[in-house]
Specification:
By secondary structure, the protein is mostly helical. The protein has a three-stranded antiparallel beta sheet. 56% of the residues lie in helices and 4% in strands.
């Protein structure tokens, strides 16, 4: 099996990354990326071991916050109280509140607060967090039902008990992963989601979510809701995800390669074999159920020790069915579901790396555009200088060859030029504005004449002023793009390091849970089958032999030799 440890780019220690303060001057993106400043007060407390293995307690092994006292609400205070907190989804209820059709709401218990949310509201929470934090790995939520399930039976698909139970578990994992994240746990939008007294619709239509831009690439990476810099971001391009980079950063290339290998391995053999294994365990449990019922019914047709032995064997088969069903449930909860969650994580990391790639492309495209505009301005200024030299030469020529008026002394010094007549500077056409009621042909003729009447000097000077204005905007945009690139690179790398630690802890819990489930299954079956064996051993060794009173050998006891199956077949 292929291993990934040797080329894993996520194993960098966050503590070893040098911290730099972002300067207001031009940013050097070739310098080592640094994590966001002052993150110490954003770190969640250490969570002790949970009864359920996911998310693993190793997910948030971060230092204890130093006297955190800037709590925005009671939910924030509860999450960072330092206690062993866990968000629970206690129930799933069918309701028709604010709707004409029934739907399922999930009851969330967060300390003393109780909130009720439907699946679509969990989706909106995840989407909002992705927009607010485009450089962080936002945990996934369970997938929707397939289209075929809704097409065949929509009502049953919405009320499927197994699907609802699965969603309860994975939505609870989603909330706890956010609660244990060092930055997301401080987001007030998440706190309001846990508060049952707040309308979620109101939260979606109020700041900060109402301030989010339509295009997240046209907003600062560290604070997409900052309205003061949005005009400067309008000068940035909107590159596609497939646009190639001229100077890519090697560590993110390695991260992308590793993530693709990780996703392909999970989506390919891991999930495929796991689904096949669960399917066969389910079929085996069903077969055990039918065999147990058949043996119990067969025991009613027999009597004595044989009936008791068959009945005990049927009970052992029934116990094996129940233990296999329990094993199947544990494998699904503690292996298959976390495995699917990590396939979703891989997809989320891919999108995160695409965002950083687009930010890098944005920087390179802005820099190229700025260089082109500077070259254009240089050409404009060169043309302006040549035009001024030509105008000065023409002016000197007019002065030298202009006729002298009568009575003027001929010995007049050359440094006292006579006043020369200069033609007036052509002014813009006062009739260029389109008159109301002008027909299409007249308007077209007027436009063509206006284009031909444009003064080259005026056009050149207008071009110079516009180019200078564009260069100023591009310089500001390039500075912002460089800041975003540096910030996104450092925060994405830091969260990838945190995710790597989470992944190692979760995979450890997954494998231990699988081993524990199989051990308990074997232990339970061993006990039941040992009891069945003791009952089977009570059956005589030769059940086809004649009774002692009829054979005349009453003194002889039962033989200790093993039963010969060929003797029964041959009638002996």
């Amino acid at each position: 099996m292929e291993t990934f440890e040797d080329d894993n780019p996520f194993e960098n220690d966050v503590d070893h990354i040098s911290s730099e303060t972002s300067s207001t001057s031009r940013v050097n993106i070739s310098a080592p990326s640094s994590p966001p400043p002052s993150t110490a007060h954003l770190v969640s407390p250490t969570i002790s071991h949970q009864s359920r293995p996911f998310p693993s307690p190793g997910t948030s092994r971060q230092p204890q916050p130093m006297n955190k006292n800037d709590f925005c609400c009671n939910r924030n205070r509860w999450l960072h109280s330092g206690e062993d907190v866990e968000i629970l989804i206690t129930d799933a209820q069918k309701t028709t509140v604010h709707s004409t059709t029934p739907y399922i709401v999930y009851v969330i218990q967060a300390g003393t607060a109780e909130a009720r949310h439907r699946y679509s509201e969990f989706e909106s929470l995840q989407s909002s967090l992705r927009k607010l934090y485009p450089t962080l790995i936002i945990p996934p939520i369970p997938s929707k039902q397939s289209i075929s399930d809704y097409a065949t039976n929509p009502s049953k698909a919405k009320e499927d008990a197994a699907m609802i139970a699965r969603r309860k578990r994975m939505l609870q994992t989603f909330l706890n992963r956010i609660a244990r994240h060092p930055i997301l746990s401080n987001e007030h939008v998440f706190h309001r989601f846990l508060d049952g007294e707040v309308s979620w619709t109101e939260v979606l239509h109020s700041p900060p979510l109402s301030l989010l831009p339509k295009n997240i690439l046209k907003a600062p990476s560290h604070n997409p809701t900052d309205q003061s810099v949005l005009p400067a971001y309008e000068a940035l391009p909107n590159p596609s995800a497939t646009y190639p980079l001229r100077h890519p950063e090697q560590r993110f290339i390695d991260s992308e390669v590793f993530t693709n290998k990780f996703a392909n391995h999970l989506n390919g053999p891991m999930e495929k074999v796991s689904r096949k294994m669960l399917k066969r365990w389910s079929e085996s449990a069903h077969d055990y159920s039918e065999l147990g019922a058949a043996l119990n019914g067969f025991s009613l047709n027999e009597s004595g020790a044989l009936a008791a032995a068959i009945e005990k064997t049927g009970q052992a088969v029934d116990a094996t069915y129940m233990s296999t069903t329990r094993l199947l449930q544990e494998l699904e909860q503690n292996w298959a579901e976390p495995l699917h969650e990590y396939t979703q994580f891989a997809s989320i990391i891919k999108k995160l790396l695409v965002y950083r790639h687009q930010k890098h492309v944005q920087y390179e495209m802005t820099r190229d555009t700025l260089e082109n505009k500077r070259e254009l301005l240089e050409e404009y200024e060169k043309s302006e200088r040549e035009a001024k030299r030509l105008e000065e030469a023409l002016a000197r020529g007019r002065v030298e060859f202009s006729p002298r008026p009568e009575g003027q002394e001929e010995n007049e010094g050359p440094d006292e030029p006579a006043s020369a007549y200069l033609p007036p500077h052509p002014e813009p056409n006062p009739y260029r504005r389109r008159a109301p009621g002008m027909g299409f042909l007249n308007a077209l003729s007027y436009t063509l004449h206006g284009m031909m009447d444009v003064d080259p000097e005026t056009a050149r000077r207008n071009g110079i002023s516009k180019t200078r204005e564009t260069i100023s905007q591009l310089e500001d945009a390039l500075h912002l793009a460089a800041q975003d690139l540096k910030y996104s690179g450092s925060t994405i790398q830091a969260d990838l390091d945190r995710f790597q630690r989470q992944k190692v802890a979760d995979l450890r819990e997954m494998t231990i849970s699988m081993a524990r489930s199989h051990r308990d299954w074997c232990k339970k079956n061993l006990e039941t089958w040992q009891a069945a064996k003791r009952e089977i051993e009570k059956i005589p060794d030769h059940p086809n032999s004649m009774p002692a009173t009829q054979s005349g050998k009453g003194a002889a006891g039962p033989s200790n030799t093993r039963r010969d199956s060929s003797a029964t077949v041959n009638g002996r």
